[in-house]
Design brief:
There is one protein chain. By secondary structure, the protein is an alpha/beta fold. The protein has two domains: 2-145 and 308-343, Medium-chain alcohol dehydrogenases, catalytic domain (Quinone Oxidoreductase, Chain A, domain 1, Alpha-Beta Complex); 152-286, NAD(P)-binding Rossmann-like Domain (Rossmann fold), CATH 3.40.50. It has helices at 39-46, 49-54, 97-100, 141-144, 147-157, 174-185, 198-207, 221-227, 244-252, 274-279, 294-304, 322-331; strands at 2-6, 14-17, 27-36, 59-60, 64-72, 84-87, 90-91, 111-112, 124-128, 132-134, 167-170, 191-195, 212-215, 234-239, 254-262, 283-286, 313-318, 336-340. The strands form four sheets. Strands 3, 5, 6, 9, 10, 17 and 18 form a seven-stranded mixed beta sheet that branches. A six-stranded parallel beta sheet has the order 13-12-11-14-15-16, with helices on both faces. A three-stranded antiparallel beta sheet has the order 2-1-4, with no helix packed on it. The N and C termini lie close together (9 Å). The structure holds zinc ion (ZN). Zinc ion binds at residues 38, 40, 63-64, 148-149.
Length: 344
Protein backbone atom coordinates (compact mmCIF):
# COMPACT_ATOMS: atom_id res chain seq x y z
CA UNK A 1 0.00 0.00 0.00
CA UNK A 2 0.99 3.65 -0.42
CA UNK A 3 1.96 5.56 2.75
CA UNK A 4 3.61 8.84 3.62
CA UNK A 5 6.77 7.93 5.48
CA UNK A 6 9.38 9.73 7.55
CA UNK A 7 11.93 7.53 5.84
CA UNK A 8 15.10 9.38 6.75
CA UNK A 9 16.28 11.47 9.69
CA UNK A 10 16.17 14.76 7.76
CA UNK A 11 13.68 17.34 6.48
CA UNK A 12 10.90 15.98 4.28
CA UNK A 13 8.40 13.13 3.89
CA UNK A 14 8.33 10.46 1.22
CA UNK A 15 5.45 8.56 -0.44
CA UNK A 16 6.47 4.91 -0.38
CA UNK A 17 5.11 1.39 -0.83
CA UNK A 18 4.92 -0.30 2.57
CA UNK A 19 3.36 -3.53 3.79
CA UNK A 20 -0.38 -3.41 4.52
CA UNK A 21 -0.82 -3.79 8.32
CA UNK A 22 -1.91 -7.17 9.70
CA UNK A 23 -4.36 -7.00 12.57
CA UNK A 24 -4.43 -8.91 15.85
CA UNK A 25 -7.59 -10.18 17.61
CA UNK A 26 -8.36 -6.82 19.28
CA UNK A 27 -7.50 -4.62 16.32
CA UNK A 28 -9.32 -3.06 13.38
CA UNK A 29 -8.07 -2.36 9.86
CA UNK A 30 -9.41 0.89 8.43
CA UNK A 31 -9.46 1.87 4.77
CA UNK A 32 -8.44 5.50 5.07
CA UNK A 33 -10.51 7.90 2.95
CA UNK A 34 -9.45 11.34 4.10
CA UNK A 35 -6.77 12.71 6.39
CA UNK A 36 -5.83 16.17 7.61
CA UNK A 37 -2.36 17.61 8.16
CA UNK A 38 -1.64 18.68 11.75
CA UNK A 39 1.00 21.01 13.16
CA UNK A 40 2.56 17.87 14.63
CA UNK A 41 3.05 16.50 11.10
CA UNK A 42 4.75 19.77 10.13
CA UNK A 43 7.15 19.38 13.08
CA UNK A 44 7.93 15.87 11.83
CA UNK A 45 8.33 17.12 8.25
CA UNK A 46 10.70 19.87 9.43
CA UNK A 47 12.58 17.38 11.63
CA UNK A 48 12.90 19.88 14.47
CA UNK A 49 14.28 19.14 17.96
CA UNK A 50 10.97 17.72 19.20
CA UNK A 51 10.63 15.40 16.20
CA UNK A 52 14.22 14.19 16.45
CA UNK A 53 13.65 13.24 20.09
CA UNK A 54 10.24 11.62 19.67
CA UNK A 55 9.90 10.04 16.23
CA UNK A 56 11.84 6.88 15.30
CA UNK A 57 12.48 6.35 11.57
CA UNK A 58 11.16 4.92 9.37
CA UNK A 59 7.65 5.91 10.50
CA UNK A 60 4.30 6.22 8.67
CA UNK A 61 3.08 9.62 9.87
CA UNK A 62 -0.37 11.21 10.34
CA UNK A 63 -3.09 10.87 12.97
CA UNK A 64 -6.12 12.82 11.74
CA UNK A 65 -8.30 10.53 9.64
CA UNK A 66 -11.69 9.25 8.56
CA UNK A 67 -12.42 6.03 6.70
CA UNK A 68 -14.36 2.78 6.68
CA UNK A 69 -13.76 -0.44 8.58
CA UNK A 70 -12.12 -2.93 6.23
CA UNK A 71 -11.51 -5.85 8.57
CA UNK A 72 -11.97 -6.64 12.28
CA UNK A 73 -9.99 -8.90 14.63
CA UNK A 74 -11.53 -12.12 15.93
CA UNK A 75 -12.39 -10.59 19.35
CA UNK A 76 -13.93 -7.38 18.03
CA UNK A 77 -17.69 -7.00 18.46
CA UNK A 78 -18.37 -3.25 18.75
CA UNK A 79 -17.59 -2.31 15.16
CA UNK A 80 -18.37 -4.06 11.88
CA UNK A 81 -16.80 -4.00 8.40
CA UNK A 82 -18.18 -1.19 6.25
CA UNK A 83 -18.86 1.20 9.14
CA UNK A 84 -17.83 4.83 8.66
CA UNK A 85 -15.37 5.68 11.41
CA UNK A 86 -12.72 7.96 12.78
CA UNK A 87 -10.66 7.20 15.83
CA UNK A 88 -8.57 8.30 18.76
CA UNK A 89 -4.90 8.52 17.83
CA UNK A 90 -3.66 8.15 21.40
CA UNK A 91 -3.20 4.47 22.18
CA UNK A 92 -3.23 3.83 25.91
CA UNK A 93 -1.76 1.03 28.00
CA UNK A 94 -3.52 -1.01 30.64
CA UNK A 95 -1.28 -0.73 33.67
CA UNK A 96 -1.41 2.80 35.04
CA UNK A 97 -3.65 3.94 37.88
CA UNK A 98 -5.28 6.50 35.56
CA UNK A 99 -6.21 3.87 32.98
CA UNK A 100 -7.48 1.46 35.64
CA UNK A 101 -9.70 4.30 36.89
CA UNK A 102 -11.02 5.03 33.38
CA UNK A 103 -9.09 8.28 32.96
CA UNK A 104 -7.56 7.09 29.72
CA UNK A 105 -6.37 10.51 28.54
CA UNK A 106 -4.10 10.73 31.60
CA UNK A 107 -2.21 7.50 30.92
CA UNK A 108 1.56 8.04 31.16
CA UNK A 109 2.13 5.08 28.81
CA UNK A 110 0.25 6.72 25.91
CA UNK A 111 1.63 6.18 22.41
CA UNK A 112 0.63 8.28 19.40
CA UNK A 113 -0.18 6.94 15.95
CA UNK A 114 1.93 8.68 13.35
CA UNK A 115 4.44 9.66 16.04
CA UNK A 116 5.75 6.53 17.72
CA UNK A 117 3.56 3.90 16.06
CA UNK A 118 2.49 3.63 12.39
CA UNK A 119 0.05 6.36 11.40
CA UNK A 120 -2.89 7.28 9.20
CA UNK A 121 -1.28 8.89 6.13
CA UNK A 122 -1.68 5.61 4.28
CA UNK A 123 -4.26 3.61 2.37
CA UNK A 124 -4.81 1.42 5.43
CA UNK A 125 -4.45 2.02 9.16
CA UNK A 126 -4.47 -0.46 12.01
CA UNK A 127 -5.66 0.67 15.47
CA UNK A 128 -7.00 -1.05 18.59
CA UNK A 129 -10.78 -1.59 18.36
CA UNK A 130 -11.06 0.43 21.60
CA UNK A 131 -9.88 3.54 19.70
CA UNK A 132 -12.39 3.33 16.85
CA UNK A 133 -15.16 5.95 16.91
CA UNK A 134 -18.18 5.26 14.66
CA UNK A 135 -19.50 8.30 12.79
CA UNK A 136 -23.13 9.42 12.88
CA UNK A 137 -24.61 9.43 9.33
CA UNK A 138 -24.80 13.24 9.30
CA UNK A 139 -21.09 13.80 9.99
CA UNK A 140 -19.30 13.98 6.62
CA UNK A 141 -16.04 12.17 5.94
CA UNK A 142 -14.19 15.43 5.40
CA UNK A 143 -15.14 16.48 8.94
CA UNK A 144 -14.11 13.04 10.23
CA UNK A 145 -10.63 13.79 8.91
CA UNK A 146 -10.15 16.53 11.50
CA UNK A 147 -12.14 15.37 14.51
CA UNK A 148 -8.83 14.94 16.35
CA UNK A 149 -8.02 18.69 16.51
CA UNK A 150 -11.70 19.60 16.88
CA UNK A 151 -11.54 17.32 19.90
CA UNK A 152 -8.60 19.34 21.24
CA UNK A 153 -10.71 22.48 20.84
CA UNK A 154 -13.74 20.89 22.51
CA UNK A 155 -11.67 19.45 25.35
CA UNK A 156 -10.16 22.90 26.00
CA UNK A 157 -13.41 24.84 25.61
CA UNK A 158 -15.32 22.46 27.89
CA UNK A 159 -12.69 22.56 30.65
CA UNK A 160 -14.69 25.36 32.30
CA UNK A 161 -18.33 26.47 32.13
CA UNK A 162 -18.69 29.04 29.32
CA UNK A 163 -22.41 29.79 29.61
CA UNK A 164 -22.79 33.58 29.58
CA UNK A 165 -19.04 34.08 30.01
CA UNK A 166 -16.62 36.34 28.16
CA UNK A 167 -13.86 34.25 26.62
CA UNK A 168 -10.37 35.23 25.47
CA UNK A 169 -8.64 32.86 23.06
CA UNK A 170 -4.96 33.51 22.38
CA UNK A 171 -3.81 32.04 19.06
CA UNK A 172 -5.93 31.79 15.88
CA UNK A 173 -4.44 28.59 14.48
CA UNK A 174 -6.93 25.93 13.38
CA UNK A 175 -7.59 24.77 16.95
CA UNK A 176 -8.00 28.32 18.28
CA UNK A 177 -10.44 29.05 15.46
CA UNK A 178 -12.43 25.90 16.18
CA UNK A 179 -12.38 26.73 19.91
CA UNK A 180 -13.98 30.10 19.07
CA UNK A 181 -16.81 28.31 17.26
CA UNK A 182 -17.18 25.81 20.11
CA UNK A 183 -17.14 28.51 22.80
CA UNK A 184 -20.07 30.27 21.17
CA UNK A 185 -21.88 26.97 20.69
CA UNK A 186 -21.41 26.39 24.44
CA UNK A 187 -23.09 29.70 25.28
CA UNK A 188 -20.25 32.21 25.65
CA UNK A 189 -21.15 35.92 25.26
CA UNK A 190 -18.07 37.65 23.82
CA UNK A 191 -15.41 35.49 22.17
CA UNK A 192 -12.28 37.54 21.52
CA UNK A 193 -9.39 35.92 19.65
CA UNK A 194 -5.87 37.35 19.47
CA UNK A 195 -3.09 36.61 17.00
CA UNK A 196 -0.39 38.51 15.13
CA UNK A 197 -1.00 36.79 11.78
CA UNK A 198 -3.65 38.68 9.72
CA UNK A 199 -4.33 35.65 7.47
CA UNK A 200 -5.33 33.59 10.48
CA UNK A 201 -7.60 36.30 11.85
CA UNK A 202 -9.26 36.54 8.42
CA UNK A 203 -9.91 32.78 8.44
CA UNK A 204 -11.23 33.07 12.01
CA UNK A 205 -14.12 35.34 11.04
CA UNK A 206 -14.96 33.14 8.06
CA UNK A 207 -15.31 30.08 10.29
CA UNK A 208 -16.63 31.78 13.44
CA UNK A 209 -18.35 35.02 12.31
CA UNK A 210 -19.33 36.02 15.86
CA UNK A 211 -15.69 35.97 17.06
CA UNK A 212 -13.91 39.30 17.54
CA UNK A 213 -10.45 39.22 15.94
CA UNK A 214 -7.68 41.26 17.58
CA UNK A 215 -4.29 41.76 15.97
CA UNK A 216 -2.20 42.50 19.06
CA UNK A 217 0.53 44.13 16.95
CA UNK A 218 -1.93 46.83 15.91
CA UNK A 219 -4.81 46.86 18.38
CA UNK A 220 -5.11 47.35 22.11
CA UNK A 221 -7.01 44.60 23.88
CA UNK A 222 -8.12 46.94 26.70
CA UNK A 223 -9.70 49.25 24.10
CA UNK A 224 -11.59 46.34 22.49
CA UNK A 225 -12.86 45.40 25.95
CA UNK A 226 -14.08 48.99 26.32
CA UNK A 227 -16.07 48.74 23.07
CA UNK A 228 -17.64 45.54 24.40
CA UNK A 229 -18.43 47.25 27.72
CA UNK A 230 -16.40 44.67 29.60
CA UNK A 231 -15.27 46.46 32.72
CA UNK A 232 -13.46 43.79 34.71
CA UNK A 233 -11.94 41.31 32.30
CA UNK A 234 -12.43 37.96 30.65
CA UNK A 235 -13.92 35.15 32.70
CA UNK A 236 -12.17 32.32 30.88
CA UNK A 237 -8.98 32.17 28.81
CA UNK A 238 -8.21 29.44 26.27
CA UNK A 239 -4.48 29.53 25.50
CA UNK A 240 -3.74 28.10 22.04
CA UNK A 241 -0.51 29.81 21.01
CA UNK A 242 2.16 28.54 23.38
CA UNK A 243 3.59 32.06 23.18
CA UNK A 244 4.81 33.74 26.35
CA UNK A 245 3.59 37.29 25.50
CA UNK A 246 0.12 35.92 24.68
CA UNK A 247 -0.05 34.05 27.97
CA UNK A 248 1.03 37.07 30.00
CA UNK A 249 -1.49 39.24 28.19
CA UNK A 250 -4.17 36.68 28.99
CA UNK A 251 -3.34 36.74 32.72
CA UNK A 252 -3.43 40.56 32.73
CA UNK A 253 -6.87 40.70 31.11
CA UNK A 254 -8.70 38.08 33.19
CA UNK A 255 -11.15 38.84 36.00
CA UNK A 256 -10.16 38.08 39.58
CA UNK A 257 -10.77 34.36 39.96
CA UNK A 258 -10.54 33.84 36.19
CA UNK A 259 -9.78 30.47 34.66
CA UNK A 260 -7.26 29.40 32.04
CA UNK A 261 -7.29 26.21 30.00
CA UNK A 262 -3.99 25.82 28.20
CA UNK A 263 -3.46 23.66 25.12
CA UNK A 264 -0.71 25.63 23.31
CA UNK A 265 2.63 23.94 23.86
CA UNK A 266 5.44 26.41 24.56
CA UNK A 267 8.64 25.72 22.63
CA UNK A 268 10.63 26.75 25.71
CA UNK A 269 9.86 27.46 29.40
CA UNK A 270 7.91 30.64 30.25
CA UNK A 271 9.10 33.43 32.46
CA UNK A 272 5.97 33.46 34.62
CA UNK A 273 4.79 36.11 37.07
CA UNK A 274 3.53 33.51 39.51
CA UNK A 275 2.54 36.27 41.96
CA UNK A 276 0.03 37.66 39.47
CA UNK A 277 -1.60 34.24 39.15
CA UNK A 278 -1.75 33.78 42.93
CA UNK A 279 -2.92 37.27 43.88
CA UNK A 280 -5.65 37.17 41.26
CA UNK A 281 -6.80 33.68 42.21
CA UNK A 282 -6.39 32.22 38.75
CA UNK A 283 -7.29 28.56 38.13
CA UNK A 284 -5.06 26.89 35.56
CA UNK A 285 -5.69 23.63 33.75
CA UNK A 286 -3.37 21.92 31.26
CA UNK A 287 -5.15 20.15 28.41
CA UNK A 288 -3.73 17.14 26.59
CA UNK A 289 -5.47 15.34 23.77
CA UNK A 290 -9.11 14.43 24.13
CA UNK A 291 -11.01 12.74 26.94
CA UNK A 292 -11.68 9.18 25.89
CA UNK A 293 -14.41 9.13 24.94
CA UNK A 294 -16.41 11.91 26.53
CA UNK A 295 -14.86 14.61 24.29
CA UNK A 296 -15.67 12.49 21.22
CA UNK A 297 -19.27 12.12 22.35
CA UNK A 298 -19.65 15.84 22.99
CA UNK A 299 -18.07 16.99 19.72
CA UNK A 300 -20.13 14.63 17.58
CA UNK A 301 -23.26 15.79 19.42
CA UNK A 302 -22.30 19.44 18.86
CA UNK A 303 -21.77 18.79 15.13
CA UNK A 304 -25.19 17.17 14.98
CA UNK A 305 -26.63 20.18 16.84
CA UNK A 306 -25.32 22.70 14.32
CA UNK A 307 -21.67 23.37 15.18
CA UNK A 308 -20.08 24.01 11.77
CA UNK A 309 -16.33 24.33 11.27
CA UNK A 310 -16.32 23.17 7.64
CA UNK A 311 -15.06 26.54 6.35
CA UNK A 312 -11.76 25.83 8.09
CA UNK A 313 -10.80 23.55 5.19
CA UNK A 314 -8.69 25.63 2.79
CA UNK A 315 -7.11 22.85 0.72
CA UNK A 316 -8.47 19.58 -0.70
CA UNK A 317 -5.82 17.48 -2.44
CA UNK A 318 -5.26 13.92 -3.61
CA UNK A 319 -2.73 12.27 -1.28
CA UNK A 320 -0.09 12.15 -4.00
CA UNK A 321 -0.04 15.96 -3.94
CA UNK A 322 0.94 15.96 -0.28
CA UNK A 323 3.89 18.25 -0.95
CA UNK A 324 1.54 21.09 -2.01
CA UNK A 325 -0.37 20.52 1.24
CA UNK A 326 2.72 20.61 3.42
CA UNK A 327 3.98 23.73 1.63
CA UNK A 328 0.64 25.41 2.41
CA UNK A 329 0.83 24.34 6.06
CA UNK A 330 4.40 25.57 6.37
CA UNK A 331 3.41 28.97 4.94
CA UNK A 332 1.28 29.60 8.05
CA UNK A 333 -1.63 30.66 5.86
CA UNK A 334 -3.55 27.39 5.57
CA UNK A 335 -6.49 26.24 7.65
CA UNK A 336 -7.02 22.50 7.46
CA UNK A 337 -5.43 20.71 4.51
CA UNK A 338 -7.30 17.54 3.53
CA UNK A 339 -5.54 14.69 1.71
CA UNK A 340 -7.74 12.17 -0.09
CA UNK A 341 -6.38 8.59 -0.01
CA UNK A 342 -9.06 6.86 -2.08
CA UNK A 343 -6.92 7.01 -5.23
CA UNK A 344 -3.48 7.12 -3.66
ZN1 LIG B 1 -3.40 16.64 15.17
Amino acid sequence: MKALVKAEAKEGLWMQDVAKPEIGPDEVLIRVHMTAICGTDVHIYNWDDWAQKNVPTPMVVGHEFGGTVEEIGSDVARVKPGMRVSGEGHVVGERSRAVRAGRFHLDPDTKGIGVNMPGAFAEYLKIPAFNVVPLPDDVPMEQAAFLDPLGNAVHTATAFDLVGEDVLITGAGPIGIMAAAVARHCGARHVVVTDINPDRLKLLVQVAPHAIPVNTLKEDLREIMGHLKMTEGFDVGLEMSGAEPAFNQMVEHLVMGGKIAMLGLPAKPFNLDMGALIMRGITFKGIYGREMFETWHKMLAMLQAGLDVSKLVTHRLPAKEFQTGFDAMRSGKAGKVILDWREA
